[in-house]
Amino acid sequence: MLMNVWIALTVQSLLYGNGLALAAAALALTYAVTRVPNFVHGDYVTFGVLATIIVAYGLGLGYELGLVSAFILGGLLALACYVFVLKPMKARGADIVTLMISTFALTFVVRYCMYMLTDYLDFINLGGISPWVNAAMQISGIAALLTVTVLPIAMIVALHLLLTKTRLGWAMRAIADNEELAKIVGINVEKILIITWFLIGGYAAIAGVVWSIAMGSSYGVSRVVQLYNLEWGWLILLEVFAACILGGVSSIYGSIIAAYILAFARVMGTYIMSTYFGVSSSFAPAIPLAILIAVLLFMPEGIAGFDWSKIMGRMGLKKIHGSEG
Amino acid sequence: MPFELVGFFLDVMWYAGIFAILAISLNLEYGYTGIPNFGQAFFFGMTSWFAAVLTSILLPQFLNAILGGNVIPAATNAMDTFYTAPDAAKVVAANPGLAAVIIVVTIVACVAFGAFLGFLASLPAARLREDFFAITLLAINAAMFYIMATSQLRPIFGQSEGVNGVGALFLLLKSVLGDSPYAMGIARNIVAWTGALIAFILAERIANSPYGRVMKAVRDDEIAAMSIGKNVAKVRTEVMMLGSALAAFAGALWILGYGPYPVFLYGTMLKLDDVSFVAVTMVVVGGMASNIGALVGAIAIRWLLRVPYLVGPALAANPLLAKIATRLGFVVLGVITILMLMFRPKGLIPEKPVKTPAWNVLEEKEGEESG
Fold it and tell me: DSSP for B9-46?
């Protein structure tokens, strides 16, 4: 009987991790290629869920079309943020903190525009949902299962293939390495940045849907895509940053691994805290935050940036150059 | 209708006053010294909690122990304060000497507490690049928010019921102002704006001094500052302690001045977007490294966020518009901040040169020569 709980918790952690990995991979891509700590990222996630429900349920176009629209609309949202705010600010030579502040300001704009949108949807009573700030819709069990398992893994694999096997991916990696040199080599940096931001928004949007299904029930896969509230993306934003920084800020693979670590920490940690220590689960968001703070204090380079060869050298597993007697 | 307007005005100005202190404190940290403190709500909120605990738990217990007996009803934990605070307030209202003691002790203790928190928060700064440091402060702010939300810690942090404090300063002023309908609002505003004035004068003195020049040097060119022997890390620590102490001052004033028994609620005071980030926009829009700018920014933005609530009732005929109006405040704030950052990154009111005493002498001499 006890074993069942731990299996369920593992499943829950993996599903949560799937969502977090998608969002974190998108944020790592942001850091790597565009070098902006993007605080609107969380709102892309919220927007993904909202868009899915609007298209699939509100407009009655079905779940699959809802997902595709969410990807496209999320991508366009991220693109809009880049074109209207980040690009002109970078052109004016804004430093990284100023860019951060501008993305913060964007969270106000995006989030409260979403509020206005839901106010309007409430008013016209689209799809009979009320209130739209925590809209929910039912989907089939198969659709839910595929969304939280196959879809995120497929998307991550697709990202990997994109980055390693295509010219576009090669160009993105070149820009991540050194933007100036990439320009010299003839890469159309502007075009690549546009595509990158589109992908970032799309991935974050889908991450939202994955997450909302994964979090819908404690021990399995719920069949409800639910928008808990419009603050949701903003609230988990720091978890996504935690995954990114733990993974080693610009490393996509690092952030994916870190996402699963954090997912397990959060799900298992919450369960352990509430069962064995009687701490309420409202404490749950503090777990990834505590890990984030610890990483920033003690290991800001993260997993990918950490100098593993030093540790392995000390443990005698690997010779460090020049340490031969 | 006029009554509501005046009440509304007083309410907005009270918040504006408190935020003015926060904006000035953040301006010293970010505007003058370049420390991106995106978690100012942490220092503000923690100290506010501390002030509530001081005024309704610790100080009454202490005073009872010294004076013997049960002079002031003292709570034993955060949840008790709801019951003891009203009676404690009555005792304090009747006893100005007691009120004065509570006020002085609370302010001093809170400022020290804030400086201590600022010191702790500055420790990671040395090893982190600026965006990571900003995220660290943000994370600490957010983490504290969730820690305070934990129901197990309710005896300490009060959770959703909050911790009631005793508004000794408010009570003192009220006893002078009497019971007119606006007396409460006026008392609050006296507290907030006296505090803002003190913060402003302090910040101006610091900014217009050789130390102010060092702050700007650390902000503008760290390596140049180090090359002339300035201890950059020490300056950052000192400025963070100062800024946090000022934010703590605001937190103490909140509890001492909001009402007879105000409540510390983590949900309002530690909020990342409503408090921390709005303070950042006030500095950025009002004017970086300009104390007047911070003041102007605080007032302007506070009004911007509250005007929709004034206009809302007038739009009662159209419920959709009324609701949308309340959202617009934040959208406009975001847009204005972005426009400012793009076209006028120094803010509305420009930074002025550091006016040390030597500068004033120089200006006089130049005036003599040209006149």
Answer: HHHHHHHHHHHHHHHHHHIIIIIIT----TTHHHHHHH
